[in-house]
Amino acid sequence: EMKYMKARREALGGYLPARRRESESLAIPDLSVFDAVLKGSGGKEQSTTMVMVRLIAALLKEKAIKDRVVPIVPDEARTFGLEGMFRQLGIYAAHGQKYTPEDQEQLMHYREAKDGHMLQEGINEAGAMSAWAALATSYSTNNLPMIPMYMYYSMFGFQRIGDIAWAAGDAQAQGFLLGATAGRTTLNGEGLQHQDGHSHILANTIPNCVSYDPCFGYELAVIVHDGLQRMYVNQERVFYYLTVMNENYEHPAMPEGVEEGIKRGMYLFEKDEKATVQLLGSGVILREVIKAAKILRDEYQIHSNVWSVTSFNELARDGMACEEYNRLHPLAEEVKESWVSKQLRGTEGIVVSATDHMRAYSEQIRAYLPDGRPFVALGTDGYGRSDTRANLRSFFGVDAAHIVVATLKKLADEGEVDARLVKDAISNFELDTDRPVAWAPQAHPEVQPVAEYNETQTGEGN
Question: Is Phosphoprotein among this UniProt entry's keywords (predicted)?
């Protein structure tokens, strides 16, 4: 009887619940599957959010893995441009669609189906994240590796469901979290509720969460492909957090030899043989850094290298790992050197970084710069505001003008330029030097006075 029961249990898939350490590897296609993105935008402007949608669409066309890719949204599918998948994939509903959607006559109308492939969880980030976690651990619980791709407003991720993300990390989840409309100054006009400048700091608290803040489409493509390889071929128990933006701009084709740097967290984007300054940019603020480099060169005859930093978190983790190895191997013949130190060691001059996140994000690498290189970190500390991108970036001090001034001031501190040059630059850019810092609490809240109301007396004789 016992033998029979064991045989029946094995026929049903074994004892449940059960967790496996390993599962089948998936046939991940070559990087060329993203060729349309790697070649650049061809003069067209698009956001990295839209690039991410194109990458998901490309994976859904791959026969070997299309059934494993599961797009998940809480309620912003149309904001992210995912509505085309409503008809293509269908939204999973256990009992099918029981109503006629009001957009039925539109080409990309809302469609639910019993065999739907997409999860639309409504305004329910906790439910969406729980669904992601279930899919992300399916390789272990069901011996069925899935590729969940949960796209949401980045402000409503770790800030709202951080404990579920931590639990997913503890459960060795694998998949992609896509923090869309990210950046304190990039999601303009939506104020402090929506403007995210700290999700990467929160992501870094989860040891097996690998996070990136790319600027260009080819960076995003390389990162997504590397994640697929690491998680579904190499069986690494990590999950990826990527921030993507809603600002439209042209995307160049991928230069040669940058893939390793993109994955490691930093690569040289724009080289100047006369460079005496190293400018680092992350996410869309890399474009402000590129503008600043041009201003420094054309107006101040100061040459700089421009570095794209895809992940300050990965650079910092690498630096910590090298530091710990060297501390515990004092007699080792070879001292390990961090990636950021290797990249900058052959250069000279101060280092200035700018991101659309809090200063703490880029400050992490200060300890790993070669030779104690002078370093300035610019970021978006403080609550978001409702304004234009240009005004927001000026307010938080991460636009090209503030990057130029920060560079000149640090050069003046090092005795390389006259301080009067900094004063002239501040005047030329018409910067407000007396405004409070962006993170300062308001001394007097802005209260709109109620208009005086004089009650009119009524009655006989009036």
Answer: no
Q: Under 8 Å CB-to-CB from 325, ≥6 apart: which residues?
A: 332, 336
Per the CB < 8 A criterion, the answer to whether 20 and 140 are in contact is: yes
Domain interval for residue 50: 17-82+118-250
Does residue 455 have a pLDDT over 70?
Answer: no
Q: Tokens representing 199?
A: 């999700």
For residue 271, pLDDT beyond 50? yes
- Structural domain total, the chain: 2
Token digits for 203? 């992501």
Which two tokens mark 230? 């690491």
pLDDT for the residue 70: 96
User: Could you tell me if residue 95 is inside a domain?
Assistant: no
- At 458, the pLDDT band (50, 70, 90 cuts) reads very low
Over residues 351-377, the mean pLDDT reads 98
* Half-sphere CA count of 40, side-chain side, radius 13 A: 10
Same domain, yes or no: 346 and 222 = no
Q: For residue 91, is it within any domain?
A: no
Please report the DSSP string for 65-132 in residue order.
TTTTEEEEESS-HHHHT-THHHHHH-EE-TT---S--TTTTSTT---EETT--BEE--S-HHHHHHHH
Amino acid 450: pLDDT? 61
Looking at the fold, whether 369 and 246 belong to one and the same domain comes out as no
The answer on pLDDT for 460 being more than 50 is: no
- CB burial of residue 445 (10 Å; 0-12, 13-18, 19+): exposed
Task: For residues 216 and 205, give the distance between their C-alpha atoms in angstroms, rounded to a whole number.
Answer: 26
Q: What are the pLDDT digits (tens) for 80-92?
A: 777 777 777 888 8
CATH of the domain at 127: 3.40.50.970
CA distance 246 to 338: 32
Whether 224 and 267 share a structural domain: no
Burial (CB count within 10 angstroms: exposed 0-12, middle 13-18, buried 19+), residue 383? middle
pLDDT at site 89: 83
pTM: predicted TM-score of the whole model, two decimal places: 0.91
The CATH number assigned to the domain holding 422 equals: 3.40.50.920
- Say how far apart CA 182 and CA 368 lie, in whole Å: 27
